[in-house]
Q: What sequence folds into this?
């Protein structure tokens, strides 16, 4: 089933994309190729094919969360352009309202 330019325009509207009629007409066959490819993959997948997100197994490398000594406050604030009450002072960007 080929995608029409009208269907692409509807999808673009749902995605909040502003596409011209020419862009919709150009994208319709390209999106149709993508959808056909995805459907072919879905045909191959069976109960004996494990789901995976990567071709290689990946694991997160985590280290223990340990408290360690850090810089003294004075050393950290020494490079700040403005300091107030032992903290960085930054310009106000939000109103009080």
A:
């Amino acid at each position: 089933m080929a995608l029409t330019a009208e269907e692409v325009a509807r999808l673009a509207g749902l995605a909040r994309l502003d596409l011209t009629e020419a862009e919709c007409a150009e994208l319709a066959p390209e999106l149709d190729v993508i959808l056909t490819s995805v459907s072919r993959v879905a045909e191959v997948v069976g109960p004996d094919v494990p789901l995976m997100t990567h071709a290689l197994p990946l694991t997160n490398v985590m280290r223990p969360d340990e408290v360690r000594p850090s810089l003294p406050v004075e050393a950290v604030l020494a490079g700040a352009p403005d300091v107030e009450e032992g903290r960085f002072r930054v310009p106000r960007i939000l109103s009080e309202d």
The radius of gyration is 27 Å.
